[in-house]
Design brief:
The complex is a heterodimer of chains A (121) and B (284). Chain A is mainly α. Chain A has six helices and no strands. Helix content of chain A is 50%, strand content 0%. Chain B is mostly helical and 284 residues long. Helices cover 46% and strands 6% of the residues of chain B. Chain B has 13 helices and seven strands. In chain B, α5 packs across α8 and α9 crosses α13. The longest helix of chain B has 15 residues. Classes of the chains: A mainly alpha (121), B mainly alpha (284). The interface between A and B is medium-sized, with 16 and 14 residues.
């Protein structure tokens, strides 16, 4: 699904590029799930993951939680990573990490995008 | 007493007997030991300085601020309020006693007649009403000035909240304790998450303070509140801060002086018993 989208935007991008519209580079970047996920993760009103986690590219990060790096290594299974972001209480009932899914802090779609981003780290 | 314990023990009711032993006094011991172990070497009274006890560079800036403290003019206003007679000729001293330095240490207290926790701010407005005056607003302005004055006068004395052995008082304490440890809000965080588990850590750019010593310098003068106010008045009561910390986790705050916040204050202040009052304080 996501990779289809991606391919589509790439295709559309090159068509438009051929038409000489440089801004499309930006438009296609916005649709790229990794950078869309990054925006949500860094947005103080959305994921605000930087409140607690250090993440490459983010500033003024907190240090309550482990830095998010080498994620493919730590979470080879993307579904497990998504489950942690969806509801961290499953692994640690007393966790300070907000239950992003059950408390509707982020939507299903937003959590998909954040997962893509975190998995890319 | 020992006999009873043995009896219960022999009846196999171990859980019940240990539960009966754990009360406010034991909670306080555990609470203090936890923080002393978390921050070894920190003097007990240092906890009353919040984040400035933990971060040397923040402390330097703070000490510079305290040379010409911005709260001083509001402490003076508080003194004027203390001294000015009501329309009926009486004064606050008629409610609280003549010596303004002896007031702060009596609150919060359990009022056995009313069966509720009475905070200093509640007592201030009770006194006004009793004398035919309009009550002050709860979170800032005159109530915070007067409370700051009474705190200032009490500097150097120790927090000394008493929890009488009255089931209703203990219930109020337990409710306050529960509030403090309960997760709340859309972000699902407890006071204890930020101020017991993670003090000394940064949440985004904010260093978190330990809950031990939280109350010694209230009301507090905050730069953030100063910016919001047209008159440069950054003073606010403890319940104003409670409301702010509830909102941070996207929980609906309770009204200042609600039963919830008074019970919370009962627990929260009791946990700092024995620490020196240094009100009002300055914070970011």
């Amino acid at each position: 699904m996501t990779s289809n989208n991606h391919r589509f935007s790439g295709l559309a991008g090159s068509l438009l590029l051929a038409a000489g519209l440089v801004i499309t580079a930006q438009a296609s970047a916005a649709e790229d799930p990794v950078s869309a996920g990054k925006k949500i993760a860094f947005d103080r009103k959305k994921g605000n993951c930087l409140a607690c986690h250090q993440i490459e590219g983010g500033t003024l990060a907190g240090n309550i939680a482990p830095p998010l790096l080498a994620m493919k290594h730590r979470f080879p299974d993307k579904a497990k990573l998504r489950a942690q972001i969806w509801d961290a209480r499953k692994n640690n009932p007393r966790t300070i990490m907000p239950p992003f899914g059950p408390h509707r802090i982020l939507s299903e779609k937003e959590i998909d995008l954040v997962t893509e981003f975190i998995h890319s780290l | 007493m020992r006999k009873i314990a043995t009896l219960l023990l022999s009846a196999g009711l171990v859980a019940v007997s240990t539960q009966a032993v754990s009360g406010p006094k034991e909670d306080l011991e555990k609470f203090r030991t936890y923080f002393e172990q978390k921050f070894p070497g920190l003097q007990l009274d240092e906890f009353g300085n919040g984040v400035y006890a933990l971060d040397a560079s923040k402390r330097l800036q703070w000490e510079a601020m305290e040379e010409f403290p911005p709260y001083e003019e509001f402490v003076d206003k508080g003194r004027e309020i203390w001294e000015k007679p009501f329309k009926n000729g009486k004064r606050f001293a008629d409610c609280f006693g003549k010596d303004p330095s002896k007031v702060r240490v009596k609150y919060p207290r359990w009022d056995a007649e009313r069966q509720q926790v009475v905070t200093l701010e509640l007592a201030i407005n009770d006194c006004r009403k009793k004398n035919g005056e309009k009550p002050f607003k709860w979170k800032k302005g005159p109530i915070a000035w007067l409370s700051a004055y009474l705190g200032y006068e009490a500097r150097g004395q120790k927090i000394d909240v008493k929890i009488p052995n009255d089931p209703k008082a203990l219930e109020a304490y337990e409710k306050g304790k529960h509030f403090f440890y309960a997760k709340r809000g859309q972000l699902n965080m407890a006071c204890a998450d930020c101020h017991v588990k993670y003090p000394g850590h940064f949440i985004r750019g904010n260093l978190l303070s330990p809950a031990l010593g939280h109350v010694t310098h209230f009301p507090v003068f905050r730069a953030k509140w100063e910016k919001k106010s047209k008159s440069g008045d950054g003073l606010g009561t403890l319940h104003r801060r409670y409301g702010g910390c509830n909102k941070q986790v996207r929980a609906r705050p309770f009204p200042a002086q609600s039963e919830q916040y008074r019970n919370l204050e009962f627990f929260h202040q009791y946990m700092s018993n024995g620490l020196t009052i240094n009100a009002p304080g300055y914070r970011e």
